[in-house]
Amino acid sequence: MTGVKHLQSMQQYYDSIETPLGFLAIEADDAAVRSVSFQETSPSKRNPSALTNEVVEQLTAYFRGALKDFTVPVQPEGTAFEQGVWNSLITIPYGDTCSYLDIARKLNNRNAIRAVGRANGANPIAIIIPCHRVIGSDGSLTGYGGGLWRKRWLLEHEARIAGTSLF
Asked: What is the pTM of this model?
């Protein structure tokens, strides 16, 4: 008999961390991080796990300037195109930036600049999937779900630690 396969439901875990940019809410399941998002107030939902604890540790190290590459497993939900964009974002080196056009070219579709921008904006895992490293082709800061002031802070933080120029 064929039909819909029912996946075993995974436990959901929640935690948060206070950072220089405000609170980050962390959501994960048994296998991977599903979401890291900026919050204006401390999230009340808490059900930590070993994985969310590791995310908190790695984010703490990142903000201290002691971590450049995250090693926690991530599994954001999105379309195949969004997944391709997010996989490209992970390859942008710490302390560096690239443009939406650069990512469109990596995906072999230079006409997809706006679609890349939409996918970048839909990234559910802030900082770990570094959508903040994407800037305009002219070097300008462009939209960021957490606010341009956070994007600037993140880029300046990484540039300072990496010893690179901002743009």
From this structure: 0.90
